[in-house]
Amino acid sequence: MASQNARADSLSLLLFTLRSGKLMAINLLKVSEIIPCPALTRLPEAHPHVKGVATLRGQALSVIDLSRAIGEQPLLDPSGGCLIVTDVSRSKQGLHVQAVSRIVHCLSTDIRPPPYGSGTQSFITGVTQVDGALVQVLDIEKVIHGIAPARLQGEAQRLSEADARCLANANILVVDDSHVALQQSLITLRTLGIECRTARSAREAIDCLLELQGTDAQINVLVSDIEMSEMDGYALTRTLRETPDFKDLYVLLHTSLDSTMNSEKARLAGANAVLTKFSSPELTGCLITAARFVAQQAR
Question: In what order do the strands lie in the sheet with 59-65?
Fold first, then answer.
């Protein structure tokens, strides 16, 4: 299979530091702007990791004390530093950091998985090297979820008999390197009465697809994150499209980035659809569309 030779995508990372001085990074596509730390209004019942609310062009912006949120030492100057304003999973927030370093460009294959043993408490999704220095890639979705958890208890949605039958025949594989995002997807599937396979990386997904190919449990719908270390969702999709057994597999790319920014790139990679995280009703609608596609292909 062509998985070992998958074409890599370019990636821009914004490097920043906290008090310790170690380099951390965030995907530049998740960053709206960088501003000096403004005056903040403290909300008395806010989460302890929320420093306060800033007003940015007339709009309220929650400011997260990133040091506290990931268990680091607080900044020496609590009113200094700067804000990285992020736009992730349909919401904006400010991350209070010590300093922004620079922007670097790399390939998705340059991002390696977190060190073994990092565990589910880690706030990084990968690591890379920049000029010989280790850089940790921030799991911003996990930071946000720790402060304002998404509702993971869903209510069973009413489905038509035809849609319920279609979904029952869909063998779904969900791929995501974020534990939080994976759980959100699984809860939606379970409210629909669907059990599915999961993978935490593109290569693990390929192994699962190969293992089940030709069996009664053969995967016919793939729901994949885009941002993953070593091989991202675009490269995974292209690899599948170049493999005869998987060229017709239904692929939904599920991303914390604005899907309008990614729709053309997803189309060029060969994905059937792209969706911004996280909306349970919208994911349900996409899964029904996928199941209908699979049912039609089977006729």
Answer: 31-36, 82-88, 91-97, 59-65, 50-56
CATH 2.40.50.180 segments of the chain: 3-147
211: helix, strand or coil: helix
Q: How far apart are CA 102 and CA 10, in angstroms?
A: 17
* CA–CA separation, 246 and 265 (whole Å): 19
CATH 1.10.3720.10 assigned to 151-298? no
The confidence score (pLDDT) of residue 3 equals: 41
The domain made up of 3-147 has a fold known as OB fold (Dihydrolipoamide Acetyltransferase, E2P) (2.40.50)
**228, 235 contact by CB (below 8 A):** no
Listed in order, the ranges of the chain carrying CATH 3.40.50.2300 are 151-298
- Would you state the structure tokens that stand for residue 292, as one six-digit string? 């209908």
For the chain, how many helices (H) and strands (E)?
Answer: 8, 15
> pLDDT tens for residues 54-67?
999 889 999 999 99
- Mean per-residue pLDDT for 91-120? 86
Between the alpha carbon of residue 20 and those of residues 60, 67, 71, 115, 121, the distances in Å are 29, 10, 12, 19, 19
Whole-model pTM: value is: 0.83
Q: Quick check: helix, strand or coil at residue 252? A: strand
Cβ-defined contacts of 259-264 (< 8 Å, 24+): 261/29, 262/226
**pLDDT in the model for residue 113:** 87
> In angstroms, rounded to a whole number, what is the distance separating the alpha carbons of residues 216 and 201?
23
pLDDT beyond 70 at 218: yes
pLDDT at residue 259, rounded to an integer: 65
Cis ω for the linkage preceding 16 (within 30 of 0): no
